[in-house]
Specification:
There is one protein chain. By secondary structure, the chain is of the alpha/beta class. The chain has a domain of 144 residues: 3-Layer(aba) Sandwich (Rossmann fold), CATH 3.40.50. It has 9 helices and 12 strands. The longest helix has 40 residues. One of its GO terms (molecular function) is transferase activity. This is Type 1 glutamine amidotransferase. Belongs to the peptidase C56 family.
């Protein structure tokens, strides 16, 4: 039989070996995590979101008329009884939705914000969504996230007979989200067939291109998409607002006042 001290030493050596193996394993695991973190950091951009207050836009040099448009009290309810649908998705340009919506409501119109039905990307895309994505859409200010707004209905729930007009705000990726949605495209096509007003500003006319309703039409849009509008069969001019039949188009956030008045004028005349 081994002396007791030999048994103890053997046990201690075994424990030491186990501890050493575990330490090496943990060290390798930590090194693996450190490497993974290093890779993640290289794949991730820095977060530095700087919002542009609406007041800054209204007070910018050259926007005096736009400022006066919003700060001059509306006296007549010229659109009383009219119902307007705003078609928008994540990535809409904030002032291009909130500006016209505010004005049309001031004029007495009823306005619904209509969004595509919530359809999260496949799990393998690795995306996550806040819970409010099911009831809200995200605004941007020139490609920077700005805030959220609640929508009233989804595109699969609306009918042409529900509204007198539809308008689409811009934003760089809002129209890209809309033009892929079958319910949105069908609604726009049916609206066009009815002869009721379709209005689009900034990047939004590309949704009309996807709906294939631009052939032979006169229109305008954000400068970057004008070639796309031409390729879709439209005749494009660089003007703040273009009206052609039941279609009104505009170029940019700074044209919001002219765009909103054009929609008002068209609905009054009809």
């Amino acid at each position: 039989m081994k002396p007791i001290y030999q048994i103890l030493m053997t046990g201690l050596l075994s424990i030491s070996s186990v501890v050493n193996i575990n330490a090496q394993t943990n060290m390798k695991a930590e090194q693996g995590k450190s490497y993974e973190l290093e890779v993640i950091n290289q794949l991730t951009t820095s977060t530095a979101v700087v919002n542009m207050p609406v007041s800054q836009l209204l007070n910018a040099p050259g926007n005096e008329a736009m400022k006066a448009f919003f700060f001059t009290p509306v006296k007549e309810k010229t659109l009383q009884g009219k119902k307007i649908a705003v078609i928008a998705a994540d990535g809409f340009e904030e002032i291009e939705l909130t500006g016209p919506v505010w004005y049309f409501k001031q004029l007495g119109a009823s306005v619904d914000i209509v969004a595509p039905k919530f359809n999260p990307a496949p799990a393998r895309y690795g995306l996550s969504y806040p819970e409010m994505s099911k009831t809200h859409i995200m605004a941007i200010q020139y490609l920077q996230p700005a805030g959220w707004i609640k929508f009233d209905r989804t595109a699969d729930q609306v009918k042409v007979s529900d509204y007198d007009a539809v308008f689409i705000p811009g934003g760089a990726w809002n129209p890209d989200n809309l033009r892929y949605d079958k319910d949105v495209i069908k609604f726009i096509q049916d609206f066009n067939k009815s002869g009721k007003l379709i209005a689009a500003i900034c990047h939004a006319p590309v949704v009309l291109a996807s709906a294939d309703i631009l052939k032979g039409r006169k229109l305008t849009g954000y400068w970057n998409i004008q070639v796309d509008l031409k390729n879709a069969g439209g005749t494009v001019t660089d003007e703040p607002v273009v009206t052609d039949g039941n279609m009104i188009t505009s170029r940019h956030p700074i044209d919001v006042a002219d765009f909103s008045r054009a929609v008002e004028d068209w609905l009054i005349k009809k």
